[in-house]
Amino acid sequence: MSARRLIVNADDLGLSPGVNRGVAHGHEKGIVTSASLMVRGSAAYAAAAYARTRPLLSVGLHVDIAESRWEAGGWITAYELIPLDNATAVAAEVDRQLERFMALVGREPTHLDSHQHVHRAEPVSSILRERGRRLGIPVREQNAGIRHLGGFYGQGGKGAPWPQGVGVDALCRLLRSLPEGTTELSCHPGLGNDTGSAYGTERGLEAATLCDPRVRATLHSERIELSSFAQPMFD
Prior knowledge:
CATH superfamily: Glycoside hydrolase/deacetylase
Oligomer: single chain
């Protein structure tokens, strides 16, 4: 077994047809091994149908309850389904999305995370951690055995384009810096800018990089083993 194992997880599966195509392209032609499904997305049904045909693609739930974007010099709320500080409402919405996931995909998720990392704050953090324990699955950034790496991203902290952040050189540098153990690299591939979100053209750049042969060559030369949430720490 390799001393360094990498899970490449594509967030936002189900958000749009273009995102679905990008995730599929990254899985079939590149290094994507896992994905997180947005069950509220307009293309969630098609995404789940695809996932059922790809047993090697581990699929988790991308809990989607709020989104913010940088606009006119500050962060504004694009949407918030329920108050993020209302534990009862958050728990009910998480459970609704878990139920929807199992109805769509036909099996339990392999992992849990959230759109724009809202589970970094309470009470969402504790709620997802408890659901993860109940299901026996990892929650992003809350499992000691799986380190999360979020540096592969095409925008700066205030939404300014940063295409070099998702270039081949940037990704290869990240790969060479991986420590021993299991790391999750999150990504956001897409083909066709159809999400309506602030993160648009960057998705196509990500898809191209994830499928670039130089990236797989770096994995080989660095002796990094691709893995998934279905078996992140075991052969």
